[in-house]
């Protein structure tokens, strides 16, 4: 009797598993949407195209969908993930290799549900979990803009991912766990400016995609980890929440100046991927929208409640940067005196955006030294940071030990924060990774 009951339970359990798999498969399989003839640019309203251009900038479409040296929006940019390398797709209106045969309905489904025209599930490297918040009207304008761009014939590259991670159907399982489809809903207790900033930041601009750490399955963490900072593309996207301990708070004015101008005297300059946000993204966005995004993040990072005496903080940073001959017994101090002091010494003039006071820079107060290491290794080009200002790369002039000593010295003498661990190993890794790329 016992064996009979056990057999029945096993049979019922197996049947439930089979039924569940059949149900999941039926739900996961999405129908293809019929192809269309690429719409002529003249069929779109000029005003809508222009609005779509700004929306594309806010979403950094050209940044992600353009390979180094490639045609705009033609795809091919490698995105290295913990599961393999994914190459961005061609989103020009080429019918054979791009999205020229996609109707507005197909484009909207991709943006809102993460499903391609042929019914296949998109990998979440395409941040549809953020784009789903974008309104139908804005998706329509974005579609009009992209369909008005020059068509480029460039076949997409297949993802370099091991089986079964490369099976598109399995992405539906990821969606069941982590994806919530739906448009942005305004918060009635907040102002119109706050809601506009939240709509852009949480949706099309997908700020959380870089500034929020991810779990083992590649989904954004929630709770206190939201906007807590994360390593992305070899850089550290700093915390945008209250855990950011920059000496001078990131208030709305500082955030606006950084996003609009590429840097501030109190926080340093944009470099690496963040320079694309400034110059390929926010540069084309309306001023009111940049203000709105700055206002939104300032409201969540606790800057208004920190009660920091900025003048005192600045005075302290200037005092720490004054040359002390006794420090030159340290290797890092000698490297600083030889390579850095001439440009980063502000004396009594006060900090200047074009020559950042290192004791105020976010890269020195961050929980991770990656950005400081990268800037020393690779510099800040004229295309990054502030217009007509640059920092030379010291990767060829300084050894790994020199840079590690410099980074350790700056953290110790310019902040009261605990020392970073594993600096020497990080410097070697960042240099090696740059050679590979």
UniProtKB/TrEMBL annotation:
Residues 47-150, 192-301, 327-414 form the Cytochrome c domain. Keywords: Cell membrane, Heme, Iron, Membrane, Metal-binding, Repeat, Signal. Its main location: membrane. Coiled coil: none annotated. It is found in: Cell membrane. This is Mono/diheme cytochrome c family protein. It comes from Variovorax ginsengisoli.
């Amino acid at each position: 009797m016992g064996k009979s009951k056990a057999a029945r339970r096993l049979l019922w359990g197996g049947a439930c598993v089979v039924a569940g798999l059949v149900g999941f498969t039926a739900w996961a399989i999405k129908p293809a949407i019929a192809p269309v003839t690429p719409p002529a640019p003249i069929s779109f309203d000029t005003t809508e195209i222009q609005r779509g251009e700004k929306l594309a900038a806010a979403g950094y479409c050209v940044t992600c969908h353009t390979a180094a040296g490639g045609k705009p929006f033609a795809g091919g940019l490698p995105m290295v993930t913990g599961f393999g390398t994914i190459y961005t797709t061609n989103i020009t209106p080429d019918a054979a290799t791009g999205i020229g045969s996609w109707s507005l309905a197909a484009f909207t489904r991709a943006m809102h549900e993460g499903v391609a025209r042929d019914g296949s599930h998109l990998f979440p490297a395409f941040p549809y979990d953020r784009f789903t918040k974008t309104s139908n009207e804005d998706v329509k304008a974005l579609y009009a803009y992209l369909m008005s761009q020059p068509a480029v014939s460039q076949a997409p590259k297949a993802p370099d991912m091991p089986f079964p991670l490369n099976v598109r159907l399995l992405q539906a399982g990821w969606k069941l766990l982590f994806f919530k489809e739906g448009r942005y809903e305004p918060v009635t207790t907040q102002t119109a400016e706050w809601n506009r900033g939240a709509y852009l930041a949480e949706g099309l601009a997908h700020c959380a995609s870089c500034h929020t750490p991810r779990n083992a399955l590649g989904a954004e963490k929630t709770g206190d980890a939201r906007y807590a900072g994360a390593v992305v593309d070899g850089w550290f996207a700093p915390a945008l929440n209250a855990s950011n301990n920059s000496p001078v708070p990131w208030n709305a004015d500082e955030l606006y100046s950084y996003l609009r101008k590429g840097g501030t005297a109190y926080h340093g300059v944009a470099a690496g991927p963040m320079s694309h946000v400034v110059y390929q993204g926010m540069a084309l966005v309306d001023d009111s929208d940049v203000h709105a995004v700055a206002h939104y993040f300032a409201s969540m990072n606790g800057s208004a409640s920190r009660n920091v005496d900025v003048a005192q903080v600045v005075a302290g940073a200037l005092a720490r940067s004054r040359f002390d001959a006794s420090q030159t017994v340290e290797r890092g101090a000698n490297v600083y005196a030889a390579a850095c002091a001439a440009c980063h010494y502000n004396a009594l003039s006060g900090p200047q955006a074009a020559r950042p006071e290192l004791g105020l820079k976010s890269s020195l107060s961050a929980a991770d030294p990656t950005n400081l290491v990268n800037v020393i290794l690779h510099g800040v080009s004229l295309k990054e940071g502030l217009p007509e200002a640059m920092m030379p790369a010291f990767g060829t002039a300084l050894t790994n030990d020199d840079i590690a000593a410099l980074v350790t010295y700056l953290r110790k003498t310019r902040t009261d924060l605990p020392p970073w661990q594993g600096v020497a190993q990080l410097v070697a890794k960042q240099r090696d990774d740059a050679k590979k790329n």
